[in-house]
C-alpha cells in the first residue's frame, strides 16, 4: 500500500503535493478529497499538473484564465502557473505531477479536456502504483501511455480568459464575483474613462469575445459549478442573471449541446475500463 494514496482535505493535499514534487520519478500521483466550498491558497508547482475530476466540481482560477472542471474532465496546468481552486460539492480528484520534459512536448498552456474512459482507467492505476515505480517495467509503460493519451484528448472550452489589461481586468473580476450583475458596457466604459467603442474594441482584442459573450460564458461556468454541487436548475438560472429557467436552459443547450442536468450526467453513461 502506497504511503500517499489518499489525502483528506486541502491541507493534507497541499502537504502531499509538496512532497510529490521531489519524487525521483517522471510522474508522481495522489488522490485527494475536498469539502464543499473549501479553497486552496494561491500556489504554483515545479512540475506540470494534471487533475482529473471524479466527483463534485472544481472552479480553478489561474493567471491564464478561469476554468470549471466537472466530473469526467481533466485540467492540465503547466509548471510555474499560479492557480487557486475552490470545491463545489464534495470533491474527489486524482492528480499527477509530471516532470517537464521537452522531448515529450507537453502542452505549455492550460488545457481542459473531456477524459476518455481509457484516461480515467489509467489515472485510476497511476494513483495506485508505488511512488518509486519501475520505469522499465509495467508501471513505467502505463505512465507513458497515460501521458500520451492525455496529450491526444480534444480540448473543451469551459473557461474564460482574463485579459492582462488592468482596466479590463477590473471589469472581469467584478463580473466573476457577481455573474448575475447586469451592469452595461456603457457603465463600465464610464467607470474606466473610455468610450464605449474603445472598450468594445479592447475587450474583443484581449478576449476574442464581445463583453456580453464573455459574461455569458462566466454565467455558464458559474452555473456548471452550482449544478454540480446539486443546486436546482431554477435556482441557478435566477442566481446567474437569467429571467427564467427556460431562457437559461436554451442558452445552456446552445453552448454545450445538452440540457443542464443531462450534461452533468453524461459522463456516468460511459463504461470505465476498470
From TrEMBL:
<dbReference type="Pfam" id="PF12833">
    <property type="entry name" value="HTH_18"/>
</dbReference>
<protein>
    <submittedName>
        <fullName>Helix-turn-helix transcriptional regulator</fullName>
    </submittedName>
</protein>
<keyword id="KW-0804">Transcription</keyword>
<dbReference type="InterPro" id="IPR020449">
    <property type="entry name" value="Tscrpt_reg_AraC-type_HTH"/>
</dbReference>
<dbReference type="GO" id="GO:0003700">
    <property type="term" value="F:DNA-binding transcription factor activity"/>
</dbReference>
<keyword id="KW-0678">Repressor</keyword>
<dbReference type="InterPro" id="IPR003313">
    <property type="entry name" value="AraC-bd"/>
</dbReference>
<dbReference type="InterPro" id="IPR009057">
    <property type="entry name" value="Homeodomain-like_sf"/>
</dbReference>
<dbReference type="InterPro" id="IPR018060">
    <property type="entry name" value="HTH_AraC"/>
</dbReference>
<dbReference type="GO" id="GO:0043565">
    <property type="term" value="F:sequence-specific DNA binding"/>
</dbReference>
<dbReference type="InterPro" id="IPR011051">
    <property type="entry name" value="RmlC_Cupin_sf"/>
</dbReference>
<dbReference type="InterPro" id="IPR014710">
    <property type="entry name" value="RmlC-like_jellyroll"/>
</dbReference>
<keyword id="KW-0805">Transcription regulation</keyword>
<dbReference type="Pfam" id="PF02311">
    <property type="entry name" value="AraC_binding"/>
</dbReference>
<keyword id="KW-0010">Activator</keyword>
<feature type="domain" description="HTH araC/xylS-type">
    <location>
        <begin position="169"/>
        <end position="266"/>
    </location>
</feature>
<dbReference type="InterPro" id="IPR018062">
    <property type="entry name" value="HTH_AraC-typ_CS"/>
</dbReference>
<keyword id="KW-0238">DNA-binding</keyword>
